[in-house]
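#structure-requests
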Amino acid sequence: MIITRENQLSLTIFITTLSALLPGNSNYPLAVIPCLFFLILKIFDQTNSKLQINSSSIAISWIIFFSVFSILSLINFLVLDNPNNAIESLLFSTIYIIYILFFIQFRFSELIKGIITGVIPMFVYMLFLELPLRLFAKNFLNQGLRSLLNLRNSNEFVLRGFFEESSHMPSLIIILIFSLIYFINLNSKNLSSKNKFFIFSCFILSSTHISGSFLVSFYLPLIIFLFLKFINKLIEGKFLLFKIKTLFSLFSITILITLYRDLIISKVTNSLIFSHSIAVRSFGFFGSIYDFLANPFLGIGAGLYRDTRGPSVAGFIELFSSNDQIYDVLSKGYLLANYENFKSSGYSFPIYSSTGYLLSETGIFFLIFIIPYLILVFKGLKFSWYKFDNFDISKLHNLLIGLIPLNYLIYFTFAFPRMLPYFVLATILTEKYFMENKKDLSYKI
């Protein structure tokens, strides 16, 4: 095959970064095009036509789950008076099966290189065009360049690359941060000064990205984990060790994050007062809990999530009618989220919670999806706890890889752009890493 395996991945990741540049809605599933194309080529490749899925337990479980989801969606497409959203659910489940089948074919090392090389065009744009314009020509960036690229304006001092919203960028950079650190640790002696500068710049731009979604899904679990680890080390009479290079990196990141202090304070304040954004994203999941309680077998039904958020959220709030304080807070959040306005305008409500979406539309079948993933979350936390004992670069990737399943579970629940492939990619990357390091998962709890 002319296109190497690594180039297949790189091209797929690069095309995915362009998902928000098309007219209309953002985050089209562009990645499915190269994924499907390369899968077809592999099937008809006479030298190696066998698809590899038997080594991944989570991939098999998810293929079964999304196959069931597609069947439920197809049934509702045939019986519903307005089957548009059932078609969307059918496409979604089919697209995820394609994502799984594609990414599972690659080795861990290939996935790492594919991720890094695939984002190079976007980070060249961020480093040499978006950053200077953000510093010195903000109006031109918003009204000129981003408008030309069909992207929304940004009043925040936050680099967005080719993403339309800052809350979408964590879908990529959570896994990218780990990939960069792992790659540097593995190849630091063989990299040229130019490559080291670019990789370090990508790491700084990624790790200093600020959005509510990134703070909650990446930094909050990281801070809590480090705090617990620090307390544990103190109890054992030990300390987490820092080396000079790591201290310099952490110091640089701290300085840059300090520049965003007003924005961070704003994000935290909005969370505490249950702002519109927090209310919308939270209720997207909470309403799904009510759907499951009301009908544990099938939930609200495939294709019906968008059109039933108002009644579902109202039903969830009523569960707390006996507690006036909680009921008042949730009721105010309901008004802030504008559920009634969406209902009266005839528009389907956006899907902010992918976890809630799957729970609502699949009911008890959702367990096929979530149980293997929760096992992966547990494995990851266990791995990080025992393998991370200092901030040396050679140990730091052990911390990050173990937290990735938890990072994406939080993000998938409250903000993940569901048509992008990064959640599947991160899951398969993590599982493959653990499969290659089985002996490190044999600790007793």
